[in-house]
Every structure is written in structure tokens, then in C-alpha cells.
Amino acid sequence: MNRIALVQTQSKAAAWLAVAEVFAVYSVGAVLGLLLAKLCGVSLSNPLAAIAEHPQQDLIPIAFDLAQLLFWQYLGWFLCIGLMRLLRGPLPETRDTRPRPHWRGLLGLGLAAGCVAALPARLLFVVNDWLHLGDTAPWRAALLDAPWDFDFWVLMAVGSFALIPFVEEMFYRGYVLKRLNASMRTGSALMLGAALFAFSHAQYLHFDALNLITLASVVFSGLVYGVVVVYARSLWPAILAHAMINVPASTAMNLVIALTMAVYLVITWTQWRPLRDYSRTTFAGERIGHLLAMALVGGALAFAFHATQELALLAGALLTLMMLGGYRWYLRRLIRQGDHHDVAVHA
Fold first, then answer.
1. 223: which residues sit within 8 A by CB, 6+ positions away?
2. pLDDT tens digits for 252-269?
């Protein structure tokens, strides 16, 4: 049987099909991992919530429980991604003829992207310590108030700057962005994916100045990660940049880090002109209203799942069943109607 690969289509039908697939994977995959863990006799809960209740407890077991939770959660997502790939065939490879950066180029791109993405967040941490714009999540406040000993850094390696950048970039940029970018304009795909990424951080879904500004900074960082991934055609710069923003630091260190990043960007400003030009070109054809609409769609998908998890799961399950029954048929219909730009058929 022939396998149909959908290639860079920008029709409205194909774009909404991509959004539906992403939501189905996001909602069903999150619960699938928990069900698989239960079937294997593994009891899962959010170990970070226990920190607020008992701040003085041993953090190593919490780090282990968090790693286990992340394993099952992302296992569910990646299993759903595999199922969708079987249904629709592989996504297209990029037709960009630029040579891929070598490892030094990827490292430099990661450092530059990390400085751009992390600078607003680092400055926000400093301003909040001075002005108190709002309160962080109880578990996060308790964790940052704990002694920064070996156990603390082990937990942060799992839940912040080592494991998290790998798994989040593999999902949000390796799958979500790539799937959306195959069916809509790159700028729209970047904005929608960045909003989904930001609003998936439930600890920031509180309506005070600190958390609203933090959400905006996370959307911005998601855009930076996405741009550098599309530009470099590699996840490694985004993983490095993501790790840079997630390393915890005191108020004084945040100020020092922010100043160092600003100096680095000034010194290397001319070196990243191709990346800046690419970023401007990517968003040049996008209307502000359309980008804001994409941000609302991405945020609504994540917010709907966290606020009404049962309803969102039901919607995702129905979408998955519909795709099981008619995904490949619908792709063929799109092709027959000419709603695509190019189709690759593999025997």
C-alpha cells in the first residue's frame, strides 16, 4: 500500500487538521502514559507538590519520582506521535538548501538563543525580588528556599536544566512545531507552538503581574527556541538555550548573568546577522492579528486541558478515533481537491 506524505501545505483544512492532531496527541498522550504506568503497577503523583507541605524532606527520592513521572508522561505522548505517523505517513523533510551548521555553529547558535531567551526572564527575577510583582507556586517557593546543596542540584537537574530541556524540546519543537509547520506558515506555526508550550506550564497560570509577565516571557522563549530550530534544522541549539534559562540562580547571580548575556550579545551582534535576517523574513508576511489568534489557539488548547481535563481528554479521544477512521482518506481528499502544494508518494 502506498504511503502518503503531506508536504508543506498551507490550506485552511490542512492547517486545522494539524491543530486537531496536535491537540489529540497532547490530551490523549498525557493520560495514556498515566494509564500505562497504572497497568504496570506504578503509582504516580506530582512529587513537587509534597515539597510545599514538607520543605525539609529528602530531595533525592523526589528527584527519582519526578524522573519516573516524566518518563511515563512523555512515553504516552511519543506513543501517540508514533500512532499518528502510522496514520498519515512521514512529514516532509525540509527543502532548505543551506548547509547544516557544524557542531561549533550549533553551539554558538545555542548560546546566542539562550542569551536572547533568558535575558528577559533573568531580569524579571531580579525585578520581582525588589518589587514583589506576585507569588510563585508554593512548591517552587519552598524549593528555592531550601538549602542549595547536592540534593537540591540533583532535583534541579531532573526537573529544570538537564532532563527537562531534552524531553520538552523533543516534544514541543521536535513534534509540535514540525507538525504545524508542515501545514501552515512558519510564523503561525511558531506562535501557536510557543503558546501551547508556555500555557502547558501550569505553575504560571495565576493572574498576577509576575505570572502574566512570566507567561509572556515563556512565549517569547518558545518563539526563540522555535526560530533557532527551524533555522539550524537541529534541536541541539534549542536544548542548550532551554538549559541556560532553567539554571536557578540567586538575585545577585541573576543580575550578573543578565549583564554577561547582554555583553555577549553586543560583542557577537554582527555574527548573528543571518539568524536575525531569517527571523525577520519568517514573520514578515504575518499579520499581527493572525499571530495573536494563533497565540490564543495554542494557549486555549493547553488551558482547556488543565482547566477541564476530563472534557479535553474526551475531545482528544474523539479526534483520535476520527483520525483512526478517516485520516488517510481525508489526506487523499485534500490531494484530489488540490489543497496541497506538493505530494511525495513512497512505495
1. 190, 191, 194
2. 999 999 999 999 999 999
Residue 104: alpha-carbon gap to chain centroid? 24
> Is the CB of residue 239 less than 8 Å from the CB of residue 169?
yes
Q: What are phi and psi of 345, to 5 degrees?
A: -110, 125
C-beta of residue 299 within 8 angstroms of C-beta of residue 191 = no
| Helix (H/G/I), strand (E/B), else coil: 251 | helix
Q: What is the pLDDT of residues 54-106, one digit of tens each?
A: 777 788 999 999 999 999 999 999 999 998 888 887 776 666 777 788 889 99
3-state secondary structure of 248: coil
By the 8 A CB rule, do 82 and 21 touch?
no
- Centre a 10 Å sphere on the Cβ of residue 260 and count the other Cβ atoms it contains: 13
Q: DSSP labels for 71-128?
A: HHHHHHHHHHHHHHHHHH-PPPPP---SPPP-HHHHHHHHHHHHHHHHHHHHHHHHHH
Distance CA 104, CA 43 (A): 43
Cα 171–Cα 105–Cα 184 angle in degrees, nearest 5: 40
